[in-house]
Amino acid sequence: SQKIEQNSEALNIQEGKTATLTCNYTNYSPAYLQWYRQDPGRGPVFLLLIRENEKEKRKERLKVTFDTTLKQSLFHITASQPADSATYLCALSGYSTLTFGKGTMLLVSP
Amino acid sequence: ETGVTQTPRHLVMGMTNKKSLKCEQHLGHNAMYWYKQSAKKPLELMFVYNFKEQTENNSVPSRFSPECPNSSHLFLHLHTLQPEDSALYLCASSQEPDSFSGNTIYFGEGSWLTVV
User: Fold this and answer.
1) pLDDT for B62-82, tens place per residue?
2) Which residues in chain B are contacts of A93 at CB distance < 8 A?
3) What is the CA radius of gyration of chain B?
């Protein structure tokens, strides 16, 4: 069956460093992958979309890579700030609607 | 403001109560969704509506009853719920329901439901 894996443990980094979050998947051949940000008690907010034929996508301090051979996406936040602290979800195209991972919590300390 | 509005934000109900969650989207989208989010679990898709017709029901118990009177409004009627149904219920919308077309999903702020 389809499976999406994101690090269940929180990622703690210091302000100014680059945060790298991982999304691995199995039994999928997704056409594209999306990343969302979710703050506590609120709905997820769309950040970036990358298609299977794209290796990398950037938006301001955010960068996403998509390796269909490794079945992995990496999500980078450069020059991280405490305001970047949140849970980040990856979502893959499935047979009908998007399927979401559990998310990884990022904590950026001053 | 995400363009998707949910009410109420918080709801406490007894197992014998009947209540409803309401969702409205102001984005002109054709598809609307209900998701359930429990602690330490991924988002669980419950229902999908396309042009107010239900296109997906992910084996959701009948104590959850969706209603979509038009493409802008979506309800989730709740009755005889169990304590394990306590969760964050998220409404969402997208231009089209088919994930293959690269749709972005826009979520509401969610309704926190506690069943006592």
Assistant:
1) 999 999 999 999 999 999 999
2) 99-100, 102
3) 13
